[in-house]
Amino acid sequence: MRRKIVAGNWKMLGSRTENAALLDALVGGLNADTVTCVVCPPFVYLHDVWRALRDSPIALGAQDVCAEAQGAYTGEVSAAMLKDVGCEYVLVGHSERRTLYGEDDQLVARKYAAALGRGLIPILCLGEQLAEREAGQSTQVVGRQLAAVVNLCGVQALAGGVLAYEPVWAIGTGRNASPEQAQAIHAFLREQVGQQDAKIGAGLRILYGGSVKAGNARELFDMPDVDGGLIGGASLKSDEFLAIVAAA
Ligand code: PGA
């Protein structure tokens, strides 16, 4: 059995006051020791959140990482720094980074390598745009995004990370992929990896993200290749997020 993961992506939202209230509710309300729970706040709040979570089973993650190890990269944050402030996880290649900040497959792959090299668990986000889905290119797109990481880092590197399938048309839209649509892509991704290494394919955790909420989490998580969720909007509401963790 693959242990499920539920990760919250707080995006560029929240404040110290709001975070404190949310974390209080999460730490007090979480009673799922069979699920790995992660929260990914903005960089500036990582230390605060680490303090709030250090005696809890909830793990800390960041939303992005620099592909370079250190140096003159104004505004960037390295994998070593994330590790230094207590992060265990980091998102790489979130669709908002890819589309709004021009991150291409090669840069995302370098970020994956940088994170893994510093002992972080990268959560590699993959997903097609609506036009790509309508053109029947979903598997081609996620296959290409995955291949960039495998080509740079080797298939072994997937044993140290997590995948998150997030169809772009489902993110923040209230329109989630159906369980069958998610399952089809997850099965495809697992098969792609399994062809290169059966053991890594079988053990790979593949999260679904895109308008997951308490009301649809269970049917998504019940799919055989869906190993949890990457939650945006609903991760900022403690009751919703706890219900999603309970569904996992
Ligand atoms: P959403 O976002 O749950 O608000 O759709 C998911 C994500 O961006 O990771």
Account of the protein in words:
This protein is α/β, with parallel strands linked by helices and 248 residues long. It has a single domain (4-247), classed as TIM Barrel (Alpha-Beta Barrel), CATH 3.20.20.70. Helix content is 44%, strand content 15%. It has eleven helices and eight strands. It has an eight-stranded parallel β-barrel, surrounded by six helices. α1 (16-29) packs parallel to α2, α1 runs parallel beside α11 (238-247) and α10 (214-221) packs parallel to α11 (238-247). The model has no long low-confidence stretch (mean pLDDT 97). It binds 2-phosphoglycolic acid. 2-phosphoglycolic acid (PGA) binds next to β8. Residues 9, 166, 171-172, 209-212, 230-234 line the site of 2-phosphoglycolic acid.
In brief:
This protein has 248 residues and is of the alpha/beta class. It is 44% helix and 15% strand. The chain has 11 helices and 8 strands.
Number of domains: 1
Q: How many E strands?
A: 8
Summing up helix and strand content along with how strands pair, one would put the structural category as alpha/beta
* Average pLDDT metric: 97
CATH homologous superfamily descriptor:
Aldolase class I
Task: Give the termini separation.
Answer: 13 Å
Q: What's the CATH class, please?
A: Alpha Beta
For the biggest β-sheet, the strand order reads 1-2-3-4-5-6-7-8
